[in-house]
Amino acid sequence: MTVNAELHAGGNTWRSLPAAQQPDWPDQEALRDVIAELESYPPLVFAGECDQLRQRLGAVARGEAFLLQGGDCAEAFDAVGADQIRNKLKTLLQMGAVLTYAGSVPVVKVGRIAGQYSKPRSKPTETRDGVTLPTYRGDSVNGFAFTPEARTPDPQRLKRMYQASASTLNLVRAFTTGGYADLRQVHAWNQDFVRSSPSGQRYEQLAREIDRAMNFMNACGVDPEEFKTVEFYASHEALVLDYESALTRVDSRTGQLYDVSGHMVWIGERTRQLDGAHIEFASKIRNPIGVKLGPTTSSEEALTLIERLDPEREAGRLTFITRMGADKIRDRLPELVEKVTASGAQVAWVCDPMHGNTFEAASGHKTRRFDDVLDEVKGFFEVHKGLGTHPGGIHVELTGDDVTECVGGGDEIFVDDLHQRYETACDPRLNRSQSLDLAFLVAEMYRDQ
Ligand SMILES: O=C[C@H](O)[C@H](O)COP(=O)(O)O
Ligand SMILES: C=C(OP(=O)(O)O)C(=O)O
Ligand SMILES: [Mn+2]
Questions:
Q1: In the chain, what are the domain boundaries?
Q2: How far apart are the CA of 396 and the centre of ligand 2, in A?
Q3: Which terminus of the chain is more solvent-facing, meaning fewer CB atoms within 10 Å of its CB: N or C?
């Protein structure tokens, strides 16, 4: 084997280990053909960009920056239109601007975007009116429609995932470097939110301060070109390992392996088994890695994850995304943070206030209360304040559209409203106004910290 082939084989060592939550592909030969084709496709991201994000996350781990990570629970092939992508990006950038000002630190902006097509599920099947079919596992695997045809896993979908990711990333790159995302424009959108929505009016003071800061920079003669572009990264859960390893390549600069399907990938709560395939896969790639930590995580597990994924203790390599639930965070998080900090590891701590707060409304809709989301973030800040550690960021499920999936928020959505625009294929997302609301409230918390 040549050195490169040997290294590349390193991206496949997961194959001998148990891999949770993998699709039950009915046709293995078709799968092999798809993998071979994916292996011939060009990378979606450049390894050097992954390195840059790792450095940015290093600043988060050291307490010098804040991470804003957000986007759909599940992206969908029929939602890769320009409007939807633009609205999502716009929302994230608006949140980023508010957090940057209030925190007076750089905000690292990372979308759950351009690759977030695969879903781990609690149950393998779904039953409706006496009919049982495989559960929906994301557009990369099967269709959402409740028919045997749609729900049968089809490996051709992995190629569509690549194509949808490529076109999304292309538009995101165009928007973020071509002038659309100019900070002055983003600020004008925020002013519009503050002026025109009842929930926005509470943030008039903060928006006015940002306006003064912008005018001040102008008066100082800061080059307006400086505001024109924005650094933005793509991330998704590395779930379907056949796809992720087909897109894992040897970086010609360094000879190291990178998963070039996205800048950052994370391992979910259901697939982070220490002796499982996902952690093995993640240990072989140089991308920045996230790991979700739920309420049952022990400090021993957290420390072993560090040994496996970040043996060199490199700030920025590993991000722990905690998703405890509003009622558990104050109880469960302190020990984890204390033990990890005492071990000398420099992980970034990020709060996912969504996945521990899901419940089913009487109408059958899966939903989350805005107040629970906010309370989990509050608990996260409190714990870090108590320990003198850095609350590194938030990881949220959101969309830029006016959906009705989570209840509460400044422009309140009630349980009875959920049916109006419930569009998610998996978990409930904050809509545009709830997302901005959260950003202003987190900005206030960060400032108080
Ligand atoms: O997004 C996360 C998981 O895929 C999701 O919460 C699982 O939901 P389920 O419990 O409906 O399977
Ligand atoms: C599956 C997800 O979360 P978790 O692994 O935390 O349940 C997700 O982020 O959509
Ligand atoms: Mn989710």
A1: 3-181+229-448
A2: 10
A3: N
CATH architecture of structural domain 3-181+229-448: Alpha-Beta Barrel (3.20)
Q: Residue 121 annotated as binding? A: no
| Residues in a beta bridge with 394 | 68, 351
Please give the radius of gyration of the chain, using alpha carbons only, rounded to the nearest integer.
21
Q: pLDDT tens string for the chain (449 positions)?
A: 344 455 567 889 999 999 999 999 999 999 999 999 999 999 999 999 999 999 999 999 999 999 999 999 999 999 999 999 999 999 999 999 999 998 999 999 999 999 999 999 999 999 999 999 999 999 999 999 999 999 999 999 999 999 999 999 999 999 999 999 999 999 999 999 999 888 888 889 888 999 999 999 999 999 988 889 999 999 999 999 999 999 999 999 999 999 999 999 999 999 999 999 999 999 999 999 999 999 999 999 999 999 999 999 999 999 999 999 999 999 999 999 999 999 999 999 999 999 999 999 999 999 999 999 999 999 999 999 999 999 999 999 999 999 999 999 988 999 999 999 999 999 999 999 999 999 999 999 998 88
The ipTM is 0.98
**Distance of CA 210 from the midpoint of ligand 1 (Å):** 38
Q: What is the DSSP string of 145-189?
A: SSSHHHHS--THHHHHHHHHHHHHHHHHHHHHHSSTT-HHHHHHH
Residue given tokens 């045809």 in the structure block: 149
User: Phi and psi at residue 231, in whole multiples of 5°?
Assistant: -85, 125
Ligand 2-lining residues (CB < 6 angstroms): 73, 120, 237, 268-270, 292, 323, 355
What span, in angstroms and rounded, lies between the C-alpha atoms of 164 and 262? 13
